[in-house]
Amino acid sequence: MAVFKPKFITFDCYGTLIKFDMAGAASAIFSDRVSADDMLPFTNDFACYRLDEVLGAWKPYGEVVCQAMIRTCKKWGVEYQDSDGAGIMEACATWGPHADVPAGLATVAKAFPLVLLTNSMNDLISHHVPRLGAPIHRVFTSEQAQSYKPRMRGFEYMLDQLGCGPEDILHVSSSLRYDLMTCHDMGIKNKVWVNRGHEPANPAYGYTEINDIGGLPGVLGL
């Protein structure tokens, strides 16, 4: 990708910047009900149901997590307790950034306004923004947009609030399914995929690949 000077650099937060560990949280809670051999496919199903849950009408993220876990438990014949979803949400609030994030963000923040578009709640994201180690210009949550990614509405809301078009931003994410495929469909041409091993590559979606946020300054010619 040729060096591009965006008006804003927009980011996915969880997974891309914050070390998102739903699988670890679920594994800790369900270790007494799910065997070690079954835990990886169990948590993989939990991830798939979370994606399915965000495709409909907006609801609080705690409900997304609980409903996804209820469906996962039903599939596996595992008892679900109300405390399970609450425990996972409590774990969410404790997570911090990937080790590469603070320095990488601080470098690009000197030249560009940084914006978050996150599938978070207003009160939940407040735990994480201060841990990123760089000034964040704006934060847009699913609660504000009343829509979760990968739906387009959140991106549309963000662009409207920023007063810019798809051609004016560089969007950075570790997820093709939640972010970069939607960006492609919306005509957001300038995209960076942070390959954290969450999903397989698909270069047809037209992104620049980096291994971590430390590679982002180079993409921007910094």
UniProtKB/TrEMBL annotation:
Annotated GO MF terms: hydrolase activity
Metal-binding listed as a keyword: yes
Keyword terms of this UniProt record: Hydrolase, Metal-binding
PANTHER family: ACID DEHALOGENASE, PUTATIVE (AFU_ORTHOLOGUE AFUA_6G14460)-RELATED, HYDROLASE, HALOACID DELAHOGENASE-RELATED
Protein's recorded name: Hydrolase
